[in-house]
Amino acid sequence: MTDSGVHASLEAILRHERARLTGALVRILGDWDAAEELVQDAAVAALEHWPAEGVPRNPGAWLMTAARRRAVDRVRRQARYRDRLAQLTREASQMDGPMETGGPLAADDRLRLIFTCCHPALSREAQVALTLRTVGGLETAAVARAFLVPETTVAQRLVRAKRKIRDAAIPYRVPDGAELPERLGEVLAVLYLIFNEGYLASQADVVERRDLARDAEWLCSLVVRLMPDEPEPMGLLALMRLHLARAHARFGADGSLVLLADQDRRLWDRRMIDEAAALLERALRIGRPGPYQLQAAIVAVHASARWHTDTDWGQIVALYDALLRLQPTPVVALNRAVAVGELRGPAAALAEIEPLGQRLDGYHLFHAARGEMLRRLGRTLDAAAAVRRALELTANPAEMDLLRRRLVELEASATVA
Amino acid sequence: MKYMVLISGGETWDGLSEEQQADLYQNIGAWWAEQVQNGRILEGYQLQGAETATTVRRDLNGNVTVTDGPYIEAKETVGGYAVIDVPDLDAAISLVSGWPGPDALEIRPVVERDG
Questions:
Q1: From residue A218, how far is each of A191, A212, A224 by CA, in Å?
Q2: Tens digit of pLDDT per residue, chain A (417 long)?
C-alpha cells in the first residue's frame, strides 16, 4: 500500500475512532491534553507501521492498543497515577476487543465526551471549538478557518475550556434523569449552530471554508446512534438531511442565492429526502415531540411538494402553531407569519408581522419579510424602504446580493408607476 | 471538591412585600439548615449591606489606605456566601439550583493546597 493510501485510510479511520479513543483515555487519565496527545502519538505509530504491515483488520483496536501502551508508559513515570495504571491494565482486554461493535463501555465514553464538551458552564464558543476539535477531530487551524477567526483565538479558547473543565471539576459524565432534557438540548444547540454556520455560508465561501454542515451532520448521526431512544437528536438529523438534500438548488449557476419558491426542484435529492422523512417518522412515533422534530416536519412538508404552489400551507401553519407553543419566540412567530402570507394573503401576514417590530427591529429577516408583504400589497416605496433596512443589517454576501436584486426590481417598478 | 458560592441579591427582592420577604427568608433558613446537616455546606454567612463595607488597600511597601464602601462599585454586591463540599461542578450546580431566593449565585472552585 502506498504511503498516501495509508494516510487517506488512517484519516477516514480516525474520523470514526477518535472520539472513542479520546473518550476512553480522558475517562482513565482525567487529562484532556494527555488523551489528545496519546491519540496523536498512536496515529503517528500507525503511519510508521501500516505502510509496511498493511492496515490491520481492526484498525480501531490497533490504535487503542498503541495509545494504551503509551498511556501506560506515561503513567509509570508518574507514581501518583498508580490507581489509573491498574485501571488501564484491567481494561486492556476490553479495549483490545473488536471496536466495531463497541459495546456500552465505548459508547458511553463518546457520549460522555460530547456532553462534557457541551457543558453549560462553558461558553458557546468554547463548546463549539471543543466539540469540533475533540469529537469531530478537526485541527485547531481548521476550526479557526471555518469560523473566520485567528488560530490563536481558537487555541486560547481550547486551553481555557480544558483548564476550566479541570479546575472547576466539570464532571465527565452523561447527565441522567431530570437533567438530561436540558443538557441534551445544549448538545443539539451546539450541533445546529455548527450546521448553520456551514449551511448559511455562501457557495463561494464554502470552497475556502470547511464544510461544517457535513461535520455537524456526522456528529448528529453519532448522537442518534448513541442515544437511539431519544427523538430530538433524530429530529435534528432529519432536519439537517432535509436541508442538505436540497443544497444543490440553493445557488444559481452564478453562485447567487435562490429562494425556496424559485428553486429548481429537480435538483433536490429525492432519495435523501425520503430517507430523512422516514427518520422523522421514527422520531415522531416515540411520542415526545420537540422543537427539532417540528422544524424537520415543516421542512418535510416543503420538501414533499413537487411545485412551490403545491405546498400544503395549512399544515405548515399548524406545525408553526405547535412550534410556537414550545418556543414562543418572535423569530418563530415571524416564520409563522410568512406561512400565513401564503395561506391567507399578504394583508393577513402583515398584520402579524407588524407587532413583532419592537422586538425584531435589529433582525434583517424581519425587514425582508415585511418588505416582501408590502411589495405584494403594491406598496412599492414602503417595500423598498424595508428592503434597504434589511440590507443595512446583514453582512452575509449571498443574502446581501439577493436583497440588492430585490431592491433594484422595486426601484424599477416604482419608476414605471 | 470545595467551592465558594457567592450570593448576590436580585432586584426582585425590592418589589416584594415584607410578608413575602419573610416567607423567603424562612425557606432559605430551612434549606440552609438542611444543607449544613447533610454536610454539603461547610460554612457561610449572610452579610450586612454594602453600605456597611470598609475597604483596606495595601501596597508592596506596606502603605495602607482605608476607604468607605466595597472594593468594587457595582450594582450587584455580594450579600452572603457559603463554602460547599460536593463531588463536582454538576453536583454544585444542582445544589445551588435549590436555593429558594430570587438571586444570582456564583460558583467558584477554591484553591486547595496539599497538607
A1: 10, 10, 10
A2: 566 777 888 888 888 888 889 988 888 888 888 888 889 889 888 888 888 888 888 888 999 999 988 888 877 776 656 666 666 666 655 554 444 444 444 557 888 999 999 999 999 999 999 999 998 888 898 888 877 789 999 999 999 999 999 999 999 989 988 889 899 999 999 999 999 888 776 555 554 455 888 889 999 999 999 899 999 999 999 999 999 999 889 888 877 888 888 999 999 999 999 999 999 999 999 999 999 999 999 999 999 998 888 999 999 999 999 999 999 999 999 999 999 999 999 999 999 999 999 999 999 999 999 999 999 999 999 999 999 999 999 877 778 888 999 999 999 887 765
Per CB-CB distance under 8 Å, the chain B contacts of A175 are 90
Greatest Cα-to-Cα distance within chain A, rounded to the nearest angstrom: 85
Contact A215, A136 (CB under 8 A): yes
Interchain CB distance below 8 Å, A169 and B88: yes
Q: A12: which 3 cell numbers?
A: 477516514
Residue B108, classed as helix, strand or coil, is strand
**What ipTM is given for this predicted complex?**
0.85
Q: Tell if the CB–CB gap between B90 and A168 is shorter than 8 Å.
A: no
Distance (Å, whole) CA A118 – CA A360: 28
Three cell numbers written together for A202:
455562501
pTM for this predicted structure = 0.82
Is residue A394 classed as helix, strand or coil in its secondary structure?
coil
